[in-house]
């Protein structure tokens, strides 16, 4: 079975809920739809002719379709990064103490427990620690201030609740010191604190308690709550300090700390590249709040964290530079690092002062791919990755082309990086699609957020772009505004049309990625997004599902094709044809894709010419995947996560001359399995 759309086995792993509903959809689809849709006399007719000889087109870059990950909408912090504790180091409230420790809260009343911060942390870059004074005492029966049975202390609700599941294990780590021996209960409790889901006790004796000790526990849950909290409590009068409190599920994507079901959604798109960590997040509104790669590497306890002042939330930077490179590798994608070039939304460092930023970037490259005997390569190795990461692409800033000093600063970065790493592909922020750039670059960045009609019309955007000079990187595209809502079918439809245009122009467009990728439903800073989640559930928007239609395009052979249709039909139609290899079976297949952006079904006459004599279309290995919906503004939601998802049906009449119907307002992929004649004999 070919691997496109919702029939893919990995899609079915996404969650139990999606699995169940999807199976139902597929069964229905097979039962009612195992013949291709009816070809009627009244629909307009389109003839699509494909030259199946491999030399007819060109090889699509292996990077063409990839991912752009930005720390926006709590995409990483409280999202893809599986850390459950929010504000683990107590730094989010600033370095001046006492400070705001939210979302931490006291467990117990004001007369039972007093929480405060001071700068007694053992970590130089994270000086703030939490001081917990337990004022009650369970042992002192004469006291009027008896601690309750469950103890008192402090708890953290995570990011709008922690998803704790019965049978799963969690690693809880923290640093602790106290003025005397201490018995500290570490537990996951239900949201209201009434039920204990998992619990262990830490005992510290009076000899060692005065120094900071690293505690590490495995907690196995015996009950579930999607909105649980982590509590650290005691029943004895005491004073103790906590710092760098972390809780992670032990089961993460490839064991590297990424929330599994979210990472699997990414893996299932077979991305060719992974651009990170922003976006505006890289720039900061003010430079002081920009992403600084070196503050996000090394032990988690030594990362100061920072406030992202464009999307307005604190991040502990658990998902740092190293983790971005690691995730790219784990996804089989090439990392693309967008680095801060001394420009924020408000400031630009003058070119005569940019030298320190250039050196900082060179250090970052050394961290990613330097030898083990280099300063930064050695740190990468200590972090568990002795081999260099395959960093070949760098974006010099984000959306900064017209900001002061961009060109001067760009040239400083360009020259220094090319001198040391001549193979590095450098990406300019300036658009070269309509006129040539006035500076050297390997690629230029192109961003588009617009209405559905505009984006569909832009399927021809790169038809006339110069084939000489730098290539195009469409690193951010999406339908936004009223047409998009929180992720409408209409948006996905127009985006798919735009992407077929990119596929047809993939001799000049080398990379393309949707934006933004993720939204935590509790902190929507941007609509729409490809994947929506909260503490425990997730779904793909139509903007996610339409990307599934392109997951076999990377490295495929684009075939020469022509569409014959009347002018009105041509205004609403775009099609492509390619030949790809099925990685699991090793056999080839043809993929015919179409977006019908019009409200009328189309009769499609498919004519495949110049088929290599050794190839034969295998109807039994052929299928048709369609994404459509009853209403253009239909969206998926936590309640209906699969309202708009692709359906797959068999293509039993598949052959070199076949007729089928393109439903109104639909994305369609026809996958024609090929086998060599020899294999049949
Ligand atoms: O994708 C959201 C934002 O849009 C990005 O941060 C920025 O690059 C663009 O303006």
Automatic annotation (TrEMBL):
Signal peptide: none
Gene3D superfamilies attached to this UniProt entry: Galactose-binding domain-like, Glycosidases, Golgi alpha-mannosidase II
Ranges for domain Alpha-L-arabinofuranosidase C-terminal: 475-666
Reactions it catalyzes: Hydrolysis of terminal non-reducing alpha-L-arabinofuranoside residues in alpha-L-arabinosides
Superkingdom assignment: Eukaryota
Record's keyword terms, sorted: Glycoprotein, Hydrolase, Membrane, Signal, Transmembrane, Transmembrane helix
Enzyme class: hydrolase
SMART domains assigned: Alpha-L-AF_C
Pfam family, one: ASD1_dom
EC numbers, comma separated: 3.2.1.55
Transmembrane segments: 12-31
PANTHER family reported in the protein's UniProt record: ALPHA-L-ARABINOFURANOSIDASE 1
Homology family: Belongs to the glycosyl hydrolase 51 family.
Name assigned to this protein: non-reducing end alpha-L-arabinofuranosidase
Source species of the chain: Sphagnum jensenii
